[in-house]
Amino acid sequence: MATEASTDAAPAPTEPSAVARSLKDAVLAGLLALGLFLPLIGFQTVTNMRNELVLETRWPLLATIVATIIAGRFVYTLFVYPWLAARAVRPASLRYRLDTKTDEKRITWKTWATLLAAGFVAAYPAMVMVIGGGQGALKWIDNFGIQILIYVMLGWGLNIVVGLAGLLDLGYVAFYAVGAYSYALLAKTFGFSFWLLLPLAGILASFWGLLLGFPVLRLRGDYLAIVTLAFGEIIRMVLINWVPVTNGYAGISGIPRPTFFGLPFNASDEGFAAYFGLEFSPIHRTIFLYYVILALALLTAYVTVRLRRLPVGRAWEALREDEIACRSLGINTTNTKLTAFAIGAMFGGFAGAFFAARQGFISPESFTFMESAIIVAIVVLGGMGSQIGVAIAAVVMIGGTEIMRDLDFLKAIFGSGFDPTQYRMLLFGLAMVLIMIWRPRGLIATRSPSVFLKTRKEVSGSLVREGHG
Amino acid sequence: MELFVQQLINGITLGSIYGLIAIGYTMVFGIIGMVNFSHGDVFMVSAFIALITFLVLTTWLGIASIFLALVIVLVVGMVLTGLLSWTIERLAYRPLRGSFRLAPLISAIGMSIFLMNFVQVTQGPRNKSVPPLVRGEFVVMDSGTFAVTLSFKQLLIWTVTAVLLAAFWYVVARTSLGRAQRACEQDRRMAALVGINVDRTISMTFVIGAALAAVAGTLYLIHYGVVSFADGFVPGIKAFTAAVLGGIGSLPGAVIGGLLIGLIETLWSSYFSHDYKDVAAFSILAITLIFLPQGILGRPDVEKV
Lengths: 469, 305
Prior knowledge:
The complex is a heterodimer.
Chain A: H1 2-9, H2 18-42, E1 43-47, E2 53-57, H3 59-88, H4 92-97, H5 103-164, H6 173-190, H7 194-213, H8 221-241, H9 243-246, E3 252-253, H10 272-275, H11 283-309, H12 311-321, H13 323-328, H14 333-359, E4 361-362, H15 369-382, H16 387-403, H17 409-414, H18 424-438, E5 446-447, E6 459-460
Antiparallel strand pairs in A: 1-2, 3-4, 5-6
Chain B: H1 2-32, H2 39-60, H3 66-93, H4 103-123, E1 128-129, E2 137-142, E3 147-151, H5 152-174, H6 176-186, H7 188-193, H8 198-224, E4 226-227, H9 233-246, H10 251-271, H11 277-291
C-alpha cells in the first residue's frame, strides 16, 4: 500500500500541489508507523504448550493501524493544518475582543457555576438513588463519587506543594501511604476510633513531610522531583520488606470501619440502621463515607483558600515566582518550603486514613509511583494552583478511566475478547501528553491573585512561573 | 575474596548496562536540561524489539549462527528504537520546548505511562523468557570451595559495551554531529547563530541515546533472559542515578556512574540485604543529589540571577 502511494506522488511537477505534498507526507508517516509498530503490533510473543516463547502475527491489525495513520496524517496536512495556520495569523484584535467580558461579570458567572456544582455534589447520592435504585446506586456512589473525591482531595493537597509553592513532588503517594498505614496499624493494634486517628494520621504524615522535606530544601526543579520520587519508592519498599509490622505484600486486612458517632454500620441491634429504625443496607455506609470524603475535600479547599491570604501563603507563591528575590526580601525560604511540604503531606495523610477506612484492606500495591504520577497529572492538567481546574481534571481523568470499566458496547465493535479496562492507563498516559501539548498551562489557564489593587483580575497562567523552584 | 571478585565481575556487567542507558539521560539533560523520564521505558521497548527480532530470525528465518543473529538484532534494535525516540521527541517534547520548565517532564511522564501500557496491551502482562543464548564460562580463580567464573555471556556484554562506547566516543569527539552537539550543550542560541541546525541536533541526540539504550536492552535480555513490560522503571531510575552520580551532562561520568551503581548494587545484595537493593540505589540517588549535586565529573551549577 505504501509503495503504491509513493509512486503516485513521485511524478509531481517541480512545484508540488498541496495534495501531492500531503500524500508524500502521509506516506512517510505511514512508513514511520510501520517501522514502529511492526515488531510490537505485527508480532505477539506468546508462550506455547511446551513453555516456549513463539510468535503469532497480527497483520490485519497492523495494516488497519498504519492505514488509519496514513489517512489521518493526510487529512491533517491537507485540511486541518492550513486551517490552524490561517487561524493563527488572524489579526490579534479579533481574538482579544472575545475577552472584553468584564471581570465582574465573569466572577458572578463563576460564583453561580460554583454554587451549581456544590449543589450537584451535595445532592449526588440522592440523585443516584432515585435514578439507579439500590445496587446501581452503590456502584455509582462508591466507584465514581468516593473514588473521584479521594483524588480531588489528593489533588488539592498536592496543589499546595506544586501549585502554590512550586515544588514538584513526585512522591506524594508516600504521605498517602503513611496516613493509610498509620490508621490501619493504630486502629488494629489499639482499637482507636476513626475520628481520633484521622487527625493523628494527618499529623504523622506531616511529620514525614518535614522529615523528607528537610534534605531536599536545596534542590530545585527536576532534581527535587526525582528525589521526592526516590523517597516515595523507598517508603513503598520499606512497606514491602518490613514484614513484621506491615505484613509485606500481603497487606493489612480487617481494618476497622468508621462509625457514625459510635453507631457501627452493621445489621446488629446497636447498628446505625436499627437506631434510626431503617432497614439495614450496605448503602448507608457508602453514603456516609461519601459525605466524609466530601467534607475532607472541602476542608482541604477551604484551608488552601484561607492560607493563600495569610503571609505564609503569599510567601509560597512568592517562592514559586522567584526564590532568589524571596531570599533577598528576607523571606525564610526554609520555613516556607517546609510548611508547604508539611501541610500538603497532612492532607495526603487524611486522605490515606480515609482510604484505609473505606477499603478495609491496604497493601503496598496501592501506593506505587503510578499513583503519584496520576495525582501530579491531575494537578498539572487541571492547571497548577487552580482549585476548580484540579477538581475538573480529577473528574475527567478518574471518572473517564472508571467509565472505561463499563463500556460493554465496545465489545460489540471490537469483538468479545476486547477488555476496555486494559486501555485505562494507556489512554491516561496519552491524555497527559496530549493535554500538555494542547494546553501546557492546564485546563484552567488563568489564576486569580490573592492581592489586588481595585478589582480582582484574572491573570494568564503564562505570566506565572510555576514549577520553577 | 573469591566472592568479592565474583561480585566485581557481576557488578561490572550490570554496570555496563546501566552506563549505556545513563548516556541517554545525561546527553539529553546536557543539551535541553530535561529529565527524559520515558528513557527507561524506551529501553524496555528496545528489549522487546530485540526479543521479537531474535525470535523472527531464529524460528522463522532459521538463522543458526548466534553471532550473526546477535549482530542483526543489535542493528535492527538500534534503528527501530532510534526511530521510536525520534518520533517521541518530535510529538511529545518539541512542541513544549519553549514552555515552562516542568511541561516536558510531565509530558515525558505521560509518555512513560503510555509506553509501558502499550507494551502491556500489545504483548501481554506476563514475563517473557528466552532460553540462555550464550552458554559456557571461564574459571578465573578457584580456591577449591568457591570458583570465580567469568561467563561468555558476561564477556560478550563487556565487549559489546566497549565497542559501542568507542564508536559513540568517536561520534561525539570527532564528527561534525558531535561538534554540533557539544556546541548546543554549551549555548543553544549561540550555536543557532553560527548556523547549527539546533532542532536536528537535538533530534539526533535523542536518537543516539535511544540507540545506546537499545544496545543495553539487548544486553539486558541476554543477561537476565527475561523481560516484562514493567522492566523499564527501576533500571531507568538506576541509570538516571548513575548519570547523576557521574555528574549530569558528563559522558564519561555516565559510564563511571553506571559501573559504580552496578558494583554497589551487587555488593550490597551479596553483603547486606537482597531485599533492600533497590532502596540502596534510590538512597544513593537522594544522597548524591543532596550532598554532591554536581556529581563526580560534572560542573557545579552556577545560579544566575
